[in-house]
Amino acid sequence: MSHTKALLILCPDLLTAWNSRKMVLLEKYDFTKIKDELQLCALILSYSPKNESTWSHRRWVLKQVAEHHQDMTELVEKESVLVKEIAERSKMNYRAWRHRCWLIPYMTRKQVLDELKKSTRWSELHVADNCCFHYRRSLLLALLDVRLENREDSLSWESETYLLWKEELRWNEMLIRRHQGREVDLFITQEICLLSECLNEPADEFEESRVQAELSALYILWISKAATTPFTQPASIATVYLLE
């Protein structure tokens, strides 16, 4: 392990060295070695923040942790902080932000809401960095997944989700007015308005409004998965359709 560590510090793109370390880690799960591996990745990313091989290996290590530990809350929080620090030093680093998007399925509902809140200020200060807006889109779509999975308090969660999406529309309008003429990657579309209208429909005895809301949510999820390049620079400012 010491030899491959020295090689990777000098040249992080040596996939053979990364694979060799994977084989050693798979022999027997050792959380101490796992933590050392995460530290090695963090060290390499400190001077090579866009190295795809290192990011990929880090995700592999995190998967190993997830298979042996149910609670990933603390680890996900640390990963999010790491990505934020790297993003501050390395602008337009879509590899780092993609790693942050990859963490979303491991987040709790509270963490998703906290991440959405934290990323607001960062987006306002780095409005030309498209990566954070795509991250916010992934967070909002994750809220729809949570809403559909939690049936017990679905009514209150639908209301909260609707308010969050509506606030996102207002916030996007503010950014567009503040930065007129700038290419801001704002992801609001007509489908979001459709979803908001469906969530705002009054309940009826046949539950038609609930079914319509679920179908519109599934439609948006389908659109998000159909996108092949989530970090593509748009040609112009996105058109925003505001809720009344």
Automatic annotation (TrEMBL):
<dbReference type="GO" id="GO:0004662">
    <property type="term" value="F:CAAX-protein geranylgeranyltransferase activity"/>
</dbReference>
<dbReference type="GO" id="GO:0005965">
    <property type="term" value="C:protein farnesyltransferase complex"/>
</dbReference>
<protein>
    <submittedName>
        <fullName>Uncharacterized protein</fullName>
    </submittedName>
</protein>
<dbReference type="InterPro" id="IPR002088">
    <property type="entry name" value="Prenyl_trans_a"/>
</dbReference>
<dbReference type="GO" id="GO:0004660">
    <property type="term" value="F:protein farnesyltransferase activity"/>
</dbReference>
<dbReference type="Pfam" id="PF01239">
    <property type="entry name" value="PPTA"/>
</dbReference>
<keyword id="KW-0808">Transferase</keyword>
<comment type="similarity">
    <text>Belongs to the protein prenyltransferase subunit alpha family.</text>
</comment>
<keyword id="KW-0637">Prenyltransferase</keyword>
<dbReference type="GO" id="GO:0005953">
    <property type="term" value="C:CAAX-protein geranylgeranyltransferase complex"/>
</dbReference>
<keyword id="KW-0677">Repeat</keyword>
